[in-house]
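TICKET: design request
STATUS: open
ATTACHED STRUCTURE:
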């Protein structure tokens, strides 16, 4: 047994032993600092964007009598399309606000003085970016097409329901385009109508009046129209000069009723769009488009397929851009973080819309049009991140350099 004086551990030994534990504490602290703002920003941004949709949907409740349960389902089905936009936005806002707060209170300076570089401090930030990427990928590949398709089906179902529910007995119904419909009797179950009088003015040169003993509505699948099937009646028409009268008797006659006046914009849901197509269906249609599929539809499919992956990957790009932009000594870090995030996201999505438009018109390859925004912002993020890691100013003074370049060119 040693009885002599024992030496205390040296500072280097203590640093090697305590540094990993301190690093973990710092990582958890940074992750906590940006996670809470991420959850709050995600909720607020989604709620603000949804409010615009809710105001439009409430018009259906007030003016069209649509059930609140159907409106609630529409809101739920529209949520994935909003989350695909708000998840990257919330991530960027949380990074700018969290890192801005740490920079404003000089906590980042203390962490760097402890031997942690910006590359090490970015690990918890990119950990949250991984979570946001997984959320965006699940939303993009699975929830988005299902939500869009469910929205389309529900809109058409509401349109068909309002077509049948809006017809009252002994009332002239003019909700349909170019048609005035009158039914003398409708049973309680509403399965058919009796004593039908119908005026069809869709053909201006030869308007017609139809009289039928009985009729019932037949829903057309995946279409914003319903068919009114009439039985045992006659069609009466007079030419514009009022000289010739024509009468046609029928046992069965179908009249197509358009529903665009029953539910606003129902016509645009008539055909399936690429946003409603699942990932596997898009891959199958792109590989075997068939002779009937136009070139524009193929380009739209390719652009949508690439965007399903490009938008979730923007989470990593926003993390790369947000880290250097968030580290600022500004006292108004919260307001500055929100405005900066909004400016970056708006610029990103404007570039995305431009690339999509150029890809759809054939001026750019669909792959290039979908991935140009990621490439541009990734390059900018790498430059900003490396300059901030080297403690250089982010003010690149591009305008000053351009003026110097042109002046030197003129002088030469």
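STATUS: resolved
RESOLUTION: sequence designed for all positions
ATTACHED SEQUENCE:
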């Amino acid at each position: 047994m040693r009885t002599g004086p024992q030496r205390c551990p040296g500072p280097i030994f203590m640093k090697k032993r305590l540094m990993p534990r301190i690093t973990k504490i710092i990582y958890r602290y940074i992750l906590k600092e940006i996670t809470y703002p991420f959850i709050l920003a995600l909720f607020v941004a989604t709620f603000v964007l949804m409010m615009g949709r809710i105001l439009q949907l409430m018009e259906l409740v007030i003016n069209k009598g649509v059930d609140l349960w159907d409106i609630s389902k529409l809101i739920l089905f529209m949520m994935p399309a909003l989350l695909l936009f708000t998840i990257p936005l919330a991530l960027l806002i949380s990074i700018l606000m969290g890192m801005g707060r740490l920079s404003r209170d000089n906590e980042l300076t203390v962490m760097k003085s402890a031997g942690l570089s910006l590359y090490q401090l970015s690990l918890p930030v990119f950990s949250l970016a991984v979570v946001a990427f997984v959320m965006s990928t699940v939303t993009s590949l699975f929830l988005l097409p299902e939500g869009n398709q469910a929205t389309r089906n529900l809109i058409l179902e509401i349109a068909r329901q309002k077509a049948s529910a809006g017809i009252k007995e002994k009332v002239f119904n003019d909700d349909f385009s170019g048609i005035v419909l009158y039914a003398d009797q409708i049973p309680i179950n509403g399965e058919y109508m009796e004593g039908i009088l119908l005026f069809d003015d869709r053909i201006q040169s030869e308007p017609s009046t139809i009289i039928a003993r009985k009729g019932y509505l037949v829903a057309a699948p995946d279409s914003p129209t319903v068919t009114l099937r009439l039985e045992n009646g006659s069609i009466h028409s007079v030419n514009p000069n009022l000289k010739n009268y024509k009468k046609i008797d029928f046992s069965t006659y179908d009249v197509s009723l358009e529903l665009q006046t029953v539910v606003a914009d129902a016509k645009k849901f008539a055909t399936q769009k690429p946003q409603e197509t699942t990932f596997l269906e898009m891959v199958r249609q792109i590989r075997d488009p068939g002779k009937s599929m136009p070139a524009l539809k193929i380009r739209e499919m390719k652009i949508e397929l690439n965007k399903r992956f490009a938008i979730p990957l923007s989470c990593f790009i926003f993390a790369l851009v947000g880290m250097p932009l968030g580290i600022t000594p500004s006292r108004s870090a919260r307001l500055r973080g929100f405005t900066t995030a909004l400016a970056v996201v708006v610029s990103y999505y404007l570039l995305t819309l431009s690339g999509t438009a150029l890809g759809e018109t054939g001026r750019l390859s669909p792959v290039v049009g979908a991935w140009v925004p990621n490439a541009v912002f990734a390059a900018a993020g790498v430059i900003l991140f490396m300059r901030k890691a080297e403690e250089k100013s982010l003010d690149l003074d591009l305008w000053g350099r351009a003026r110097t370049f042109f002046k030197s060119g003129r002088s030469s």
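CLOSING REMARK: Strands lie at 179-185, 193-200, 208-219, 225-238, 245-258. The chain is about 60% helix and 15% strand.
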